[in-house]
TrEMBL record:
Family statement: Belongs to the GntP permease family.
Membrane topology, from the record: Multi-pass membrane protein
Species lineage: Bacteria, Pseudomonadati, Planctomycetota, Planctomycetia, Pirellulales
A Pfam entry, by short name: GntP_permease
Keywords of this entry: Cell membrane, Membrane, Transmembrane, Transmembrane helix, Transport
Transmembrane segments: 21-42, 48-65, 77-99, 127-152, 164-182, 202-223, 250-273, 423-443, 455-476, 488-509, 516-533, 579-602
Single Gene Ontology MF annotation: gluconate transmembrane transporter activity
Taxonomic source organism: Rhodopirellula sallentina SM41
Principal subcellular localization: membrane
Protein name, as recorded: Gluconate transporter
The UniProt record lists the keyword Cell division: no
Length: 606
């Protein structure tokens, strides 16, 4: 049952109570940021890029006042966050803009649409787009899927002259729901790891939860399109300069599909290889890696708190029983396995490294590299690799060095360039450009003019999306994540209540900072801490799908997906708020309801 619980330490220390610990100032800053963006864009009709940058600076300055940071430093934080966001989406959006225009002008999108409509019928065209997004978003990020399928929606509207909004929302429906529920997409993959859910189970149950939610989303798309239809608008000044081609002059189906299939196949192959390599978990310590269990127990038993061994023993991930097991000589195989299991558990601790504890240990190169990465989004296998390298360097006489480069890992590494979304979309853009040149018999100069026109429109989208990323980053830097954790500290839940709590936590995190992936990862960690070692009366996979569903709730202007949908679809900000935001809320609630029903009918307990 959901409610407040009091521990003995809280009774002894009144300041440990939940209410006394919560600092609501970050929430005030977030509200100021929300009001600022909505006022500037909707109230004053200011350009979205300017409104987002101004609001990001405003929130950053408020954070600076609260933390006594210099204003120059806070402005630098905005610029840095803008640059990081632009680096993540810049090339992808530019290539997507080229692909979209070239597929439309060459007739490739028209060929795909004609084939699909002939196969399914015009009335089921939106279902086909939804299924395409549903499948493609499993190995590929939602943004990329939307970029690739938008030309089909635009071409379909040109053919039918109706239902443009329905087509856009159908693509978004399929892409968003699997993006948050079905591995190997990073968000659900990390949630499964945090909650100790088998990846195969997460894939199966996540897909089962996603299907009815997607159907509900498709019905909502149809309703929205009938209630407030939105016409297709040109994305650029010369968006419609090429006349439509006769069917006999359209490119073949394979050539038409190449700009879509090429990046999906390349990215999917890399994702599959990396997932298989990660499942090997080569950074995990094996019993055969321990040179001498007696010496290991002796060293760890004598370790100080400020030593590498002491840091491992002090990990909050270990129980007292596990600490005792590590520091006691193992006498049989089962005890050796228990020692290794405890060490592997501790190696997942994000706080393992301490400069003081490892002052006399040479920093391994791989550890230094991984420490620069985004620690929130780091996969457990990479975190264990980072910490294992430190442990190997500290005790080479006790533990054999990890053997990371397995044949599968080498395969994944060899695909690193080809499966990189930026490179894969570059190849797709080149294919789309060549198709346009050949079909329209353009000179290289004429083709270059078309490409430049598409990039001019794409540049605006990059600026707005990056500004939205900077705004979301500034909201995160207010400390709103810690405030939410404090607000939910001391909660306990079981049964359906834990599913509701998991959904609420992820939803609040999503609204506050904009990223579904971050909302899932942080939310899963919070729920794991709330549950402790208590198992619900159903499989933990349902807790994971509740978290994933919650991360769709409340998508608005601090979410890059909002801007991708609005700008690539040609919608205004207010139109996106009336369509995209409630669509994702519908998917979120549908996922929660489906999760609750399945947890009661098919608990898969044990």
């Amino acid at each position: 049952m959901l409610g407040q619980t009091s521990t003995q330490s809280e009774l002894d220390d009144p300041t440990a109570s939940t209410g006394a610990l919560v600092d609501w100032m970050p929430a005030v800053f977030v509200i100021v940021g929300i009001v600022s963006v909505l006022t500037l864009i909707i109230g004053l009709k200011l350009n979205a890029f300017l409104a987002l940058i101004i609001s990001a600076i405003l929130v950053s300055v408020l954070v600076g006042f609260d933390s006594d940071a210099s204003m120059g430093e806070r402005m630098g934080a905005v610029v840095s966050s803008f640059g990081s966001a632009a680096a993540g989406v810049g090339i992808v959006i530019a290539m997507a803009a080229i692909i979209g225009k070239c597929m439309l002008d060459s007739g490739a999108a028209d060929r795909i649409v004609r084939t699909a409509v002939d196969a399914t019928g015009e009335k089921k065209a939106s279902l086909g787009l939804m299924i395409s997004g549903f499948i493609l978003a499993v190995p590929v990020f939602f943004d990329t899927v939307f970029y690739l399928l938008v030309p089909l929606a635009r071409s379909l509207y040109r053919r039918t002259n109706k239902n443009y909004l329905r087509y856009l929302m159908a693509i978004a429906t399929g892409g968003c729901i699997t993006h948050t529920l079905v591995p190997p997409t990073p968000g659900p993959l990390l949630v499964a790891a945090i909650l100790n859910v088998d990846i195969g189970m997460m894939m199966i149950v996540g897909a089962i939860v996603a299907v009815p939610s997607a159907m509900i989303g498709l019905l909502f798309s149809i309703y929205s399109d009938k209630k407030t239809p939105i016409p297709m608008r040109p994305l650029g000044a010369n968006d419609d300069k090429h006349k439509p081609l006769d069917e006999s002059k359209l490119p073949g189906l394979f050539v038409s599909l190449l700009p879509v299939l090429l990046p999906v196949v390349l990215i999917g192959a890399g994702t599959l290889a990396t997932t298989l390599a990660d499942r090997e978990d080569r950074a995990a310590v094996l019993t055969t890696d321990i040179e001498d269990f007696d010496l290991l127990a002796e060293r760890f038993a004598a370790a100080t708190e400020k030593s590498p061994a002491g840091r491992l023993l002090a990990s909050e991930l270990l129980s007292d029983k596990q600490r005792q097991r590590i520091t006691t000589p193992a006498t049989n195989d089962s005890e050796e396995q228990a020692v290794v299991a405890a060490i592997n558990e501790a190696l997942l601790d994000p706080d393992y490294y301490s400069q003081e504890a490892f002052a006399d240990v040479a920093m391994p190169e791989i550890t230094a590299q991984l420490m620069k990465a985004d620690q929130v989004r780091m996969k457990p296998v990479d975190r264990r690799r980072m910490n294992r390298a430190l442990l190997d360097a500290a005790y080479p006489e006790l533990i054999a060095a990890q053997r990371w480069d397995s044949p599968m890992r080498k395969t994944a590494n060899s695909l690193g360039l080809w499966s990189n979304p930026n490179f894969a979309l570059l190849l797709a853009a080149l294919a789309a450009m060549l198709t346009l040149k050949i079909v329209r018999s353009l000179t290289w100069r004429e083709l270059n003019i078309d490409v430049e026109e598409s990039l001019m429109g794409g540049g605006v989208i990059i600026l707005i999306t990056a500004a939205g990323g900077a705004f979301g980053a500034m909201l995160s830097q207010t400390g709103i994540g810690e405030t939410i954790q404090q607000a939910f500290r001391g909660q306990s839940a079981s049964g359906i209540a834990i599913l509701l709590l998991a959904w609420v936590v992820a939803a609040v995190l999503k609204v506050a900072q904009g990223s579904s992936t971050v909302a899932m990862i942080v939310g899963a960690g919070m729920i794991a801490a709330i549950m402790g070692g208590e198992a619900p009366p159903f499989n933990m996979v349902y807790v994971a799908t509740a978290v994933g569903s919650g991360s769709l709730m409340g998508s608005w202007m601090n979410d890059s997906g909002f801007w991708v949908f609005a700008k690539m679809g040609g919608l205004t900000e207010s139109e996106a708020l009336r369509t995209w935001t409630p669509l994702l809320a519908t998917l979120s609630i549908g996922g929660l309801v489906t999760t609750i029903i399945l947890s009661q009918l098919v608990p898969i307990a044990g």
